[in-house]
Design a protein that fits this description.
270 residues, 2 domains, elongated
Length: 270
């Protein structure tokens, strides 16, 4: 029986635990799999899959470093299309009250302004969860890109976000198979996907030497615009320093619109 691309890449992914470098080595050495092994890996996988080269594989991933060979997903795959203006949001897992409230207020106004805005984040505690829940409260789409297996809900407290996306109101996406546990290095690697998928990156609150700083590095390499909420002078100063270095200041929802390619004339009028 002929081996399909999906079967092969699914086996490679499971064999390598979703690690791109190991997947590449397996593909390069042309490792062979028996029909029994292929069936075993196929039976392990509950999620839908999308392989590099497939029609709906995100164009945004093609030209980044280490584009995933296979993606696992639940939910509305059409959210990956260019019909949606995507804003990636990353930030501290322990944000200040000011940053949390400001993020909530700005994104609430933004998602109410146009129906085709999609919030992209990583389903982590803190800023990520706030961003996803703004979309949920306003019945808007959101994409959660995981740093663990597609069938692992991490952290458990964000199960509501996972279920919202899985039911088709959003999209759960991961390059890691099945119930693979959350490993710290995988979160850093998945950040390249969060930044690549968006029109721009919004950083409301961040600390030096954090996962957010890694996302900023990826966004810079990918030539993405970076937007920041100004910090108060007695709080972490990373966003203020980014603004000094040329990133864009955001203090009202209209500041997002040019970067999402949305003109104010296109917004619904009261």
């Amino acid at each position: 029986m002929e081996v399909t691309k999906k079967e092969l890449l699914q086996a490679v992914s499971c064999d390598a635990n979703g690690d791109w470098e190991n997947e590449f080595k397996i593909i390069k050495e042309k490792r062979k799999y028996t029909r029994e092994q292929l069936n075993y890996y196929n039976n392990l996988c509950k999620a839908e899959t999308l392989c590099i080269g497939d029609e709906k594989y995100p164009e945004a991933f093609i030209n980044i470093n280490n584009p995933p060979f296979i993606l696992y997903y639940y939910g509305n795959i059409d959210l990956l299309s260019n019909k949606f203006a995507k804003l990636s949001v990353v930030g501290s897992r322990e944000p200040s009250e000011y940053a949390t409230k400001s993020t909530y207020a700005l994104l609430s106004e933004l998602v109410k302004s146009a129906v085709n805005i999609c919030i992209v984040s990583g389903m982590a505690k803190g800023i990520d969860a706030t961003a996803h829940r703004v979309a949920m409260e306003n019945n808007r789409p959101t994409i959660a890109i995981l740093g663990c297996g597609i069938d692992s809900v991490y952290p458990k407290e964000n199960n509501d976000i996972y279920e919202y996306c899985k039911q088709g109101k959003g999209l759960i996406l991961s390059e890691y198979p099945n119930t693979l546990a959350p490993f710290p290095n995988n979160f850093s690697k998945r950040n390249r996907l969060i930044t690549a998928l968006s029109n721009a990156l919004f950083v409301p609150h961040a600390k030096e030497k954090s996962g957010t700083s890694i996302s900023i590095k990826f966004a810079t390499e990918q030539c993405k615009d970076i937007l920041c909420l100004p910090a108060r002078i007695y709080e972490d100063q990373m966003t203020n320093n980014l603004i000094k270095d040329g990133c864009y200041l955001v203090n009202k929802y209209e500041d997002f619109l040019p970067f999402l390619k949305i003109c104010e004339r296109d917004l619904p009028q009261n």
